[in-house]
Amino acid sequence: MINFSELKVGDIVLAKYEEQLQEGKILQVDGETRQVCILTHDDQENWYTAEELFPIPVTEEQLIKLKFRKTDQAPINGNGQAFIRGPFTVLLAQGDHPKITLHYRDETRNIAGSIMVHQLQNHYHGMTLFHLD
């Protein structure tokens, strides 16, 4: 389940429909009914409550889907991988203490642990003023 206040138009999440999870993009957020309209990859639009939505972990595969590419940039403490999209960099550190570092121009955000795709999208938007999709 995802906290309703974290959901923004354009975010990519998993939606539970008829006991199956499907990846989709949020098209509308209705604060009054506390529901979101999601377009799934089979071009269906449906309304969901936050209880029917699930986060997608940020992984290499998800970053590639979001048009990031791997770089040879030095990993964090020699353990991890860097991904870039234009001037935006995501450094994923693995191991006992996973962390993510987000860097855009003169701003850097260090996040302990792992984050989800919709959270990365919200950080990206906050740092660049563009939506990541």
Task: Name some characteristics of this structure.
2 domains, 133 residues, SH3 type barrels, five-stranded antiparallel sheet
What does the model show?
The chain is mostly beta strands. It has two domains: 4-54, SH3 type barrels (Roll), CATH 2.30.30; 60-128, no CATH class. Helix content is 14%, strand content 41%. The strands form two sheets. Strands 4-3-2-1-5 form a five-stranded antiparallel beta sheet. Strands 6-7-8-9-10 form a five-stranded antiparallel beta sheet. A hairpin with a 2-residue loop joins β1 (12-17) and β2 (20-30). The radius of gyration is 16 Å and the shape is elongated. The model has no long low-confidence stretch (mean pLDDT 90).
Gist of the model:
This protein has 133 residues and is mainly β. It is built from 2 helices and 10 strands. The longest helix is centred in the C-terminal third of the chain and has 12 residues, at 117-128.
Note poorly predicted spans.
none
Largest sheet: 5 strands, antiparallel
For the biggest β-sheet, the strand order reads: 4-3-2-1-5
The backbone outline, from C-alpha atoms, is: elongated
- Counting helices, strands and paired strands, the structural category is mainly beta
Q: What's the layout of helices and strands?
A:
Elements: E1 12-17, E2 20-30, E3 35-40, E4 45-49, E5 53-54, H1 60-65, E6 69-70, E7 81-85, E8 88-93, E9 99-104, E10 107-112, H2 117-128
